[in-house]
Amino acid sequence: xxxxxxxxxxxxxxxxxxxxxxxxxxxxxxxxxxxxxxxxxxxxxxxxxxxxxxxxxxxxxxxxxxxxxxxxxxxxxxxxxxxxxxxxxxxxxxxxxxxxxxxxxxxxxxxxxxxxxxxxxxxxxxxxxxxxxxxxxxxxxxxxxxxxxxxxxxxxxxxxxxxxxxxxxxxxxxxxxxxxxxxxxxxxxxxxxxxxxxxxxxxxxxxxxxxxxxxxxxxxxxxxxxxxxxxxxxxxxxxxxxxxxxxxxxxxxxxxxxxxxxxxxxxxxxxxxxxxxxxxxxxxxxxxxxxxxxxxxxxxxxxxxxxxxxxxxxxxxxxxxxxxxxxxxxxxxxx
Length: 335
Known about the structure:
Blueprint: E1 6-11, E2 17-23, E3 26-33, H1 46-68, E4 77-83, H2 87-104, E5 108-112, H3 113-119, E6 132-137, E7 142-149, E8 152-158, H4 164-175, H5 182-189, H6 211-227, H7 231-262, E9 266-270, H8 277-290, E10 293-295, H9 306-318
Parallel strand pairs: 1-4, 4-5, 6-9, 9-10
Antiparallel strand pairs: 1-2, 2-3, 6-7, 7-8
């Protein structure tokens, strides 16, 4: 290669439509259109999400190109999230990306959404050294990933039931908080104290479980509300602080175990829940005790975004790892 590529990346795996332009390994734009309609339902409605992607994808792509101050004809490739995600949402992004790549006669690059979350660490400095461990936590996934290099990763721990982000959102629903509840709980927790304890899973290996925690929180709330009808209203901040503390403790405990078993002290976090301030502070405290080098991506690169798709595509482009036009979306796609 006589130059690094210019890539337009598109992300549409769930309810955010995002486009990003990368040139010479640098992000020039990262534009996102959010969907507010799902707040009414307490979760993402797949049909509404896919319809919104249809409305948003052209304006978002145009915005990304304009902010980057490039012409479509200067692109070397189009990158797209192939999965995992909601099928309807993925189809919108993938169909658009295929058509644009075909019209410009340039390669198409398929990107694994979870791999991209990990590679968001390579957008800005400081960058992790290989190998490193990445705790990837979101509404749909909770994983510990052994990252061997840019394109070779191994999941060494995963959730056997629910994800950490789902535990935040389901708890928020119990408390009457708006969706998504994770950021709301994080904000309220800052004003509260850890007063309540909940059951924690006893999983021997590096896997996670959050279903029992959710059940423990549910029964705790039912019992306390029966005793004190205004319990949630009166103790909301402390409840949030206690729930967040329980989730963070579960995550950190497994990360410590993974580091001890592998001997790896290069540690990163990724995914939407990695924006949680409680998790970040706990990771910093643990790093001091365990002598870790930790890496915290910008909050804007934690939630679903196309910049992480672009950086993943950059490394795939350098390996001539291109996709065929006949690829289909993958609702599930393991690393």
